[in-house]
Amino acid sequence: MNPFFIIFITLPALEIFLLIKIGGGIGALNTVALIFFTAIIGIYFAKFQGIQTLKSGMMNLYQNKMPVYELMSGASIAFAAFLLIIPGFLTDFVGFLLLIPFTRKIFFSLAFKKDYKTKEKNDDKIIDGEIIDNKKDEL
Prior knowledge:
The protein is mainly alpha-helical. The chain has a domain at 28-112. It has 6 helices and no strands. It has helices spanning 3-26, 28-62, 68-85, 89-99, 101-111, 116-123. The longest helix is centred in the N-terminal third of the chain and has 35 residues, at 28-62. The model has no long low-confidence stretch (mean pLDDT 82).
């Protein structure tokens, strides 16, 4: 089965399940207020983290460094803001995790883990050599 199809089916089902469970515990009006509150607070923190990431990226550009981490952080902050706008508690939880710099670094290290086994297989095919030219230019 296509993984995107599974995500589009399971994610709304989990969100509805959590909304019903939490709404049954704290009440319908409190649940709606909590959804709006997490969206407003999340967007504020996304704006704050985005400004900090932009400042850090500009500092790297001034130092002639490539702001790779800042670009990835900016994209993850934008995705976190999108998740925080979507009503639901699971998406809000993931969105808040993406806003925290420490957990963002953990996500990046998990997502971009290098596979060293393929590198070892390719190293056997490399032969080092040196070309020595014994002929000198005649003038």
